[in-house]
Design a protein that fits this description.
Blueprint (H helix, E strand, L loop, with lengths): L3 E6 L1 H5 L11 H5 L25 E4 L2 E4 H6 L7 E8 L5 H13 L4 E4 L11 E8 L5 E6 L1
Length: about 140
């Protein structure tokens, strides 16, 4: 059975430099022992995104690596940032849709695109994409 993941990224994260928080590199976050929660990493005022940083994708010196990979070999450079946040789901389409409904209930307005055309992520195949109405966030459902 296929596994699915819900990834989020966008201008908000980069423009506010939340993609460079030291907390992204905490060992318990990188290994998946602890979920990443930060009050400012949010799509609405109603709560932070629940991020599995161990399976999120980090950009390090122009290459992508998972948090788990970075737990084994931490970056030796300041040239890193979180690139694509893997939102916490159970790996099913149904649970990804539940997370999206919760975001919409929190006031996040998302436009769905069932034919996104290209995959900006370095992994998987995009099944559907969403763009936040203010252009600050993108979300993709990815078949791994």
């Amino acid at each position: 059975m296929a596994e699915f993941a819900l990834y989020a990224w966008g201008n908000f994260l980069y423009e506010t430099e939340l993609d460079r928080l030291a907390e992204w590199l905490e060992p318990a976050v990188l290994t998946g022992e602890r979920m990443f929660l930060h009050p400012d990493v949010a799509m609405s005022d109603d709560g932070p995104l629940r991020v599995d940083a161990s399976r999120s994708l980090y950009a390090v010196s122009g290459r992508f690596a998972s948090g788990r990979d970075l737990a084994l070999a931490p970056p030796r450079t300041d040239d890193w940032r979180i690139g694509y946040l893997r939102l916490v789901t159970d790996g099913s389409v149904d649970d990804a849709e539940r997370v999206l409904r919760e975001l919409e209930q929190q006031g996040c307005e998302l436009n769905r695109d069932d034919d996104p055309g290209r995959n900006p992520l370095p992994i998987g195949e995009i099944v559907a994409g969403w763009e936040e109405l203010h252009g600050q966030w993108d979300v993709a459902l990815v078949r791994l």
